[in-house]
Amino acid sequence: MGRRQQKPKPRVETHRVGRRIRVKEVRVIDANGEQLGIMLTQDAMARAEEANLQLVEVNPKASPPVCKIMDYGKFKYETAKRDREAKKNQKTTELKEVKFRPKTHDHDFDFKTRHIRRFLDEGDKVKLVVQFRGREITHPETGRAILEKVIRELVDVATVLQLAQMEGNRMNMVLAPKPQRPGTVKPKPPEGPIARPVAPPPPPPSTDGEDDDEGYDDDFDDDTTGLDDPDADAAN
């Protein structure tokens, strides 16, 4: 036996049109948006037919109901198009996951922190995971230190949605975008690697034969260590 063919579901209309409008009187708006006042439903339908249009009930809860003379097919098409565009532009929040290790290097930490910032700027939540291996689980404070460092780096864009907690050999924390006050503009994060301060160069050697102790920096090595001082030899 062949499969029984299913009948298509009947189309459900969201508006009453034409003779489906059962009330005696309606308030009418013409195709140009002008108010025509209250009139008999039959007279309103006659006006719509004269213009090759339909009488559509747009506000059934009013007293009397409000009807508009329009091209109902065009109206449905434009309404469906607007609904599709609104659904397409609707942002769905996702939960991103970023993993760290208790001994994550600075370069890897900065790389992952930039990704977390981008996720938060896009409106997503982020689940931070510190993965422990072997005996690392005996020092959970290292994982907590990593998560606290992430929070300090992202304090301007992140708020803690779920505090750090252990689940097996993982420590988890969930961040959410920080609500922005109306009228505030987010500062753009710096692009590329952050410039590190450069140590000042050592002072040039003295040309007058005398030692100049002013401005001496203990962080720099003394290149004269181990050399004989002729003045000291003469004195001896």
Short note summarizing the structure:
The protein contains five helices and eight strands. By secondary structure, it is of the alpha/beta class.
What does this structure look like?
This protein is an alpha/beta fold and 236 residues long. 27% of the residues lie in helices and 22% in strands. It has 5 helices and 8 strands, in the order ββαββαβαβαββα. The protein has a 4-stranded mixed sheet. The longest helix has 18 residues, at 72-89. It is rod-shaped, with a radius of gyration of 38 Å. Mean pLDDT is 77; it is low at 192-199 and 206-236.
Q: What is the element layout, followed by pairings?
A:
Layout: E1 25-29, E2 35-40, H1 41-50, E3 54-59, E4 66-70, H2 72-89, E5 95-100, H3 106-121, E6 125-131, H4 140-153, E7 158-167, E8 170-177, H5 230-235
Parallel strand pairs: 1-4, 5-6
Antiparallel strand pairs: 1-2, 3-4, 6-8, 7-8
